[in-house]
Amino acid sequence: MADAYDRLGFVKSRLVRHGAEREHVAVPPVDAPGTGILLFAGDRVILRPGETPTALLTPDEAARRPDGPLTIFLGRFEDRPVFATALPEDAAESFPEPDFRISDLRGIAAQGAVAAEELGLLATAKSVLAWHGRNGFCSNCGTATEPKAGGFRRECPACGMHHFPRTDPVVIMLVHRGDACLIGRGPHFPGTMYSCLAGFVEPGETIEDAVRRETFEETGIAVGSVRYRASQPWPFPSSLMIGCVAEATTEVITRDPLELAEARWVSRAELRTMFDACHPEGITAPQPLAIAHLLLRDFLDGTV
Ligand SMILES: [Zn+2]
């Protein structure tokens, strides 16, 4: 069985980004044979089902898409030029079953519906396309901006400002003390799931201090040492989850009700029942595609 890291979504990508190619060489033609084209219809991805399902459509298959929407050049995947386009939601109608299948990116990741290396590619495409959708105007002077560098930059024709796709750092932490770890449940969490605490890094803040601040704000628990474990792109729309392991120095929980509906300490034995879906209260662990699963699994396995 693949280890927990191998089952994380979006961490593998064979995309060769070709920053130099975007910048100094003409972007290859989108309809050349061998090109791969990723199509998003609203939030959903158009897939070609079959023995090896893929989101990398051929130019012939992608020709069903309506003209007009911005196409970005991502780079090369297994030496094929790869492009991505965000279409309106109703464009999905042009890609009917059984030749095509439509699925949202979370579902594709959870089901392993495409190769893991293709998930990373889809994460890049989704984040960059979402950024274009929200950044049509210059934040400096308000003029309409123009896509450049294959879609990895927008430029303002009035004031000359360059704008780049953003990545939002989020700390997510396994907070532990002795044989227990701290888990919580956000007000909007699905079903019965509990997870690690998490929060956005603020400007001018270290990762370690963000872990300490978020943990204290949400639960009143003080944290001492913090160490980095692994990171995960989370393209909803553009987060980078920074997984950390943190040692608590206090135990009394004072929950912030706006941030968390529940927070509690669980022992390794209790966490085991959550992973095995036999917890007496029916609470469950996050899915293997999420980095919180990896962090909690580390704790369970005693590697923390
Ligand atoms: Zn401007």
TrEMBL record:
GO terms for biological process: NAD+ catabolic process; NADP+ catabolic process. Keywords: Hydrolase, Magnesium, Metal-binding, NAD. It comes from the Bacteria. Its EC number is 3.6.1.22. CDD domains: NUDIX_NADH_pyrophosphatase_Nudt13 (cd03429). It comes from Methylobacterium haplocladii. One of its GO terms (cellular component) is cytosol. Its cofactor is Mg(2+); Zn(2+). Residues 165-289 form the Nudix hydrolase domain. It is an enzyme of class 3 (hydrolase). This is NAD(+) diphosphatase. It holds the Pfam family Zn_ribbon_NUD. It catalyses: a 5'-end NAD(+)-phospho-ribonucleoside in mRNA + H2O = a 5'-end phospho-adenosine-phospho-ribonucleoside in mRNA + beta-nicotinamide D-ribonucleotide + 2 H(+). Belongs to the Nudix hydrolase family. NudC subfamily. GO terms for molecular function: metal ion binding; NADH pyrophosphatase activity.
